[in-house]
Amino acid sequence: MPHIALLLSGPADPLLTRRAVDTLAALTQATLGKQPQVIAVTVQYIPDDAWFVGGQSLATLGLHAFNLEISVTDETNTKAEKARFLREVHAAMAQMHGPLHEVSYVHVVDARAAAYGYGGKTQEHRHQQAGV
């Protein structure tokens, strides 16, 4: 775990994609303590003229934006860890994809262990099998 879904404004950019994936994986490992071998990332691009904030397109505003949703098993991270993750993701994205509109979202989804997993097994099952 976890899965990260990243939306970026603008045209597809393979170099930005690679940089974003590497940065997000590193931040997820460092701030949320997740294992790199189970961090999955998907990236999609939305044209600037199809992304609106406050009724104005990013193309009109001359800014970029992102939306990141990361699913983690509930109760595996503290509020402080999640707040740090939000801050560090926003700062990294501003550096990589600026100028960045402030209204760029990060959503840490706390998924229940019995309703979330990979490889056909829930995280609850993995926890019980580990004997923790």
How is this structure best described in words?
- Keywords: Isomerase.
- This protein has 132 residues and is α/β, with parallel strands linked by helices.
- It has one domain (3-130): Macrophage Migration Inhibitory Factor (2-Layer Sandwich).
- The chain has helices at residues 14-32, 58-61, 79-97, 123-130, and strands at 3-9, 40-46, 52-53, 56-57, 66-73, 105-111, 117-118, 121-122.
- The strands form 3 sheets. A 4-stranded mixed sheet has the order 2-1-5-6, with helices on one face. The chain has a two-stranded antiparallel sheet with strand order 3-4.
- Helix 1 (14-32) runs antiparallel to helix 3 (79-97).
- It is elongated.
How do the strands and helices of this protein lay out in sequence?
Layout: E1 3-9, H1 14-32, E2 40-46, E3 52-53, E4 56-57, H2 58-61, E5 66-73, H3 79-97, E6 105-111, E7 117-118, E8 121-122, H4 123-130
Parallel strand pairs: 1-2, 5-6
Antiparallel strand pairs: 1-5, 3-4, 7-8
Helix pairs in contact: 1-3
